């Protein structure tokens, strides 16, 4: 999937991945896509809740080898 910016939140625990995601999205313009890589298993539910609360679209959420990848489209 194409993305405009990547955020590596590996090794960070809740709530840091969400806080960094919020900051990174603020730097994007509407329609741009942010790729987030995290290692915190709690980030799966956190990203879903964050997307709902902020109105940004969670395009994809995958897990591979202990890493979680999220693609968020800025509203």
Main sheet, how many strands, which sense, barrel?
Answer: 4 strands, mixed
Helix count equals 2
Domain unit count = 1
Q: How large, in whole angstroms, is the Cα Rg?
A: 11 Å
Class from secondary-structure proportions: alpha+beta
Top CATH class = Alpha Beta
The CATH H-level homologous superfamily = TusA-like domain
| Low-pLDDT segments, ≥5 res | none
Strand content: 25-35%
Return the average pLDDT rounded to an integer. 97
CATH topology: Translation Initiation Factor IF3
How many angstroms separate the termini?
18 Å
In short:
This protein is α+β, with helices and mostly antiparallel strands.
Present the secondary structure layout.
Layout: E1 5-9, H1 16-26, E2 33-38, H2 43-54, E3 57-64, E4 67-73
Parallel strand pairs: 1-2
Antiparallel strand pairs: 2-4, 3-4
């Amino acid at each position: 999937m194409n993305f405009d910016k990547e955020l590596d939140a590996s090794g960070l625990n809740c709530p840091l991945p969400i806080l960094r995601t919020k900051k990174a999205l603020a730097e994007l313009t509407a329609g741009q896509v942010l790729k987030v890589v995290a290692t915190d298993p709690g980030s799966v539910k956190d990203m879903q809740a964050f997307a709902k609360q902020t109105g940004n679209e969670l395009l994809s959420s995958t897990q591979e080898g202990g890493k979680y990848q999220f693609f968020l489209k800025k509203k």
